[in-house]
Design a protein that fits this description.
The complex is a heterodimer. Chain A is mainly α. Chain A is about 85% helix and about 0% strand. Chain A has one domain. The radius of gyration of chain A is 21 Å and the shape is elongated. Classes of the chains: A mainly alpha, B alpha/beta.
Chain lengths: ~260, ~270
């Protein structure tokens, strides 16, 4: 019982710390001096370097989803609706969530490990004595880059996923590229695209905040670095699902579903 | 507390020594009644110390007694619970962020772990403090300065290498070069010879003395390497139970009968 109470207290304290850390991000992020050069570098590192992994998983996801859906649709005699169903599933839900999870696995862990090892080896202190605000230089840039890059990666991932779906459709039948995409695009509505796009900013923000928080506040030497990387991935993945759950409730309440 | 330095020795007797003939210099660091605790662990307790211009002061103490905490308080990385730290006559606890940054440009800090940025070359590591302190210089001047400080630590050939390609002693020298690039008036050394072999440790000790002569710096050196203490110190302060238990020249303290001090010299 005592162990549970301790865990619950730890959970509350960690939640409070993350909230305060997020507040610090907004407080420091709007004050000059802005670290534009480092922000651009982080956008490149976080965005460009994640693209191959997002592209590969997106392609496989589109292809597999199409091949798995086909038999059910054939049973109901609506095989012609395959592009529409796959397209909506990818753009509304699977694309953003899977891309965000891949992104969390790659970026949150690397942020946790990188900042954690910088803390352990006193590099963060060295920055501070070199006239640099380490929170702005290391955290604000990473969280902002993560928030800005994930939506772009999701758009690219969705496009590649749809291409994978097109290949999947053509394994058992013949559909032209233009017909496939016309079928997909014609059936999209405002409510399919915009909420799915907006939530990706929150996914990116959650990955950036959790990844950098775990690294920046890590302790207990090299063991703490490993733990920071691991818990950054676990917590940011859970947050992605929680944000997704909230997003679907909000869009439902707004009548966008 | 035995307050001996610089004009009284541990035994209370007047012994002729070159140091005692030196007139008092302008103090660059004055620490008064400094206290710092972590939870219930009080590491500094009414600590007092004065460092004069161009003076090397070694803080001697067992591991974990708060030596590193002391110099981190001086540079503003840790905030003490009470007391005053005057650096160049200004209480660093009353400075705002910009003033503290300006002061830090005049005070170098050599970290125990060197704290070289892993993702940057030696050149980028050295340029980093110059760029961050907004020191207006042409690229040619920056390049010349980088090569000058690297030359002063004997590692000009490593300019385009990554920190991971360097040995422990080389990393220490590069970290020292990064400290020197802003031409500081005070350098704080956190265990500069720890983790190095005896030969490299002696080289680093010699380098600290050379740097003091060349750059006319005052220094606080945290160490329990007695060779380094003897080689580099103008004054030694012994930190015991959070207080400055005694201070004096290396020779003064070596001759003391105080068993708490004597154990360091055995």
């Amino acid at each position: 019982m005592n162990k549970r109470i301790t865990r619950f207290k730890h959970f509350l304290s960690e939640t409070g710390n993350i909230a305060s850390y997020t507040g610090r991000y907004f407080g420091q992020g709007v004050k000059p001096r802005f670290e534009w050069r480092e922000l651009l570098r982080q956008c490149y590192t976080i965005g460009y370097n994640s693209f191959p992994l997002v592209a590969l998983t997106g392609f496989i996801m589109g292809l597999v989803l199409t091949m798995q859906l086909r038999p059910s649709l054939v049973d109901y005699g609506v095989e012609s609706q395959l592009p529409v169903m796959v397209g909506i599933a990818i753009v509304r839900e699977i694309g953003p969530v899977i891309t965000a999870l891949i992104f969390a696995g790659k970026i949150a862990s690397s942020m946790g490990a990188e900042l954690g090892s910088m803390k352990v080896t006193e590099q963060i202190d060295a920055m501070e004595v070199s006239g640099t605000n380490p929170f702005k230089y290391l955290v604000v840039t990473r969280v902002t880059a993560s928030t800005l890059m994930l939506p772009i990666l999701v758009i690219l991932g969705d496009a590649i996923s749809l291409y994978g779906a097109y290949i999947g459709v053509n394994i058992r039948s013949t559909t032209s590229f233009s017909l496939f995409f016309r079928q997909v695009i014609d059936n999209f509505s405002f409510g399919d695209i915009l909420p799915a796009f907006i939530k990706t900013y929150f996914f990116g923000f959650a990955v950036g905040v959790v990844g950098s928080y775990k690294g920046y506040t890590s302790s207990k030497g090299t063991e703490g670095v490993g733990r920071a990387a691991n818990s950054a991935v676990v917590l940011s993945s859970i947050l992605i699902f929680i944000i997704d759950l909230l997003a679907v409730q909000i869009t439902d309440a707004l009548g966008l579903n | 507390m035995h307050h001996l330095d610089p004009y009284q020795d541990v035994t209370g007797e007047t012994k002729p020594s070159p140091q005692k003939l030196t007139p008092p210099q302008e103090p660059v660091i004055v620490i008064e009644h400094l206290s710092k605790a972590f939870g219930t662990n009080r590491v500094l307790n009414d600590f007092n110390l004065t460092v004069e211009k161009e003076q090397n002061v070694v803080i001697l103490g067992k591991s974990g007694v708060g030596k590193s905490v002391l110099i981190k308080c001086i540079i503003g990385l840790l905030r003490p619970d009470s007391g005053r730290i005057l650096v160049f006559g200004r209480n660093i606890l009353e400075l705002d962020h910009d003033e503290l940054d300006r002061l830090r440009a005049r005070v170098g800090f050599l970290f125990q772990s060197n704290a070289l940025y892993d993702s940057m070359t030696v050149r980028a590591n050295l340029e980093f403090p110059l760029r961050r302190h907004w020191i207006a210089m042409q690229q040619k001047e920056v390049d010349d300065l980088v090569m000058e400080v690297l030359g002063n630590v004997g590692l000009a050939h490593t300019v385009d290498m990554m920190p991971e390609e360097l040995s422990g002693g080389m990393r220490k020298r590069i970290a020292l070069a990064r400290t020197l690039i802003l031409k500081p008036e005070i350098i704080l050394y956190d265990e500069p010879t720890t983790g190095l072999d005896p030969v490299t440790g002696r080289e680093i000790s010699a380098l600290i003395v050379d740097i003091q002569k060349k750059y006319h710096t005052a220094s606080i050196i945290i160490s329990h390497d007695m060779h380094c203490v003897r080689r580099t110190s103008d004054k030694v302060a012994v930190l015991i139970d959070g207080k400055c238990h005694a201070q004096g020249t290396f020779g003064d303290l070596q001759d003391t009968a105080d068993p708490q001090i004597k154990q360091f010299f055995e």
